[in-house]
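A.,

Following up on our hallway conversation. Structure tokens first:
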């Protein structure tokens, strides 16, 4: 059931799965969603002494708390220069999550340096606000074609953009998992926020690198297309594909599908 106050013009159906994988002994990923508020989120934590799971959990808990409170009182939303009210809210909520994680690490020395990636989508009216930090990704399936919406905040991506390495060299680069942005590692972070038109029939996939390192975009596309709307099965199939290819990392997927008018 949709929340009338935020005026989502399409129904949002969300499902997700997070899996430890076959090589790790614990799961530092976290996923969460709130379909009535049009919200889907995924975080991939990092840090010693199991602090990664603390960072990812704190991130999503803070985002959920800030966003729900604001979305329940939409008349209080204020836009930033050049940004919509909802995009501004998303950016501010990520900033708040960054502060919460950084401050938690400051008073818990064993958690020093903990942080997390983030991929999230907030739907409102006929729009989708997409935000990310790090190398967790957001894809959109439209008309049977999968498109990567986010661009990894990673050292390898920077080298590619500078022409220092080729696409082939990037595939097996030893620094491919070095990210250039994270939530909570420093006093401030910058989320990359973009706003897109959303249409009934669009399917948004949020995923951690535990999936994309082992499953190609082409296979992800085929899996979503073949699912025929059975998104829970599609999510499990993606997890299984990554595990069958080695499951070297935690694997998480969240699928948000837009239906017809509410």
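Then the amino acids I'd put at each of the 262 positions:
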């Amino acid at each position: 059931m949709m929340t009338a106050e935020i005026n989502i013009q399409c129904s949002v159906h969300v499902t997700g799965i997070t899996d430890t994988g076959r090589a790790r002994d614990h799961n530092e990923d976290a996923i969460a969603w709130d379909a009535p508020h049009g919200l889907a989120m995924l975080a991939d934590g990092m840090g010693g002494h199991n602090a990664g799971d603390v960072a990812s959990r704190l991130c999503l808990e803070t985002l959920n708390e800030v966003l729900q409170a604001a979305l329940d009182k939409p008349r209080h939303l204020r836009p930033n220069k050049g940004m919509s009210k909802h995009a501004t809210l998303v950016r501010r909520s990520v900033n708040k999550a960054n502060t919460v994680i950084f401050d938690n690490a400051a008073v818990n020395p064993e958690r020093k340096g903990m942080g997390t990636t983030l991929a999230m989508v907030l739907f409102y009216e006929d729009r989708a606000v997409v935000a990310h930090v790090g190398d967790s990704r957001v894809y959109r399936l439209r008309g049977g074609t999968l498109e990567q919406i986010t661009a990894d905040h990673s050292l390898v991506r920077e080298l590619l953009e500078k022409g220092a390495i080729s696409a082939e060299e990037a595939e097996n680069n030893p620094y491919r998992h070095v990210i250039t942005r994270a939530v909570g590692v420093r006093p401030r972070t910058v989320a990359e926020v973009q706003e897109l038109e959303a249409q009934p029939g669009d399917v948004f996939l949020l995923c951690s690198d535990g999936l994309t390192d082992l499953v190609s975009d082409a296979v992800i596309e085929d899996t979503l297309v073949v699912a025929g709307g059975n998104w829970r099965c599609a999510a499990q199939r993606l997890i299984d594909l990554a595990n069958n290819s080695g499951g070297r990392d935690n694997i998480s997927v969240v699928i948000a599908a837009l239906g017809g008018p509410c």
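The first helix runs from residue 51 to 71. Curious whether your intuition agrees with the design.

B.
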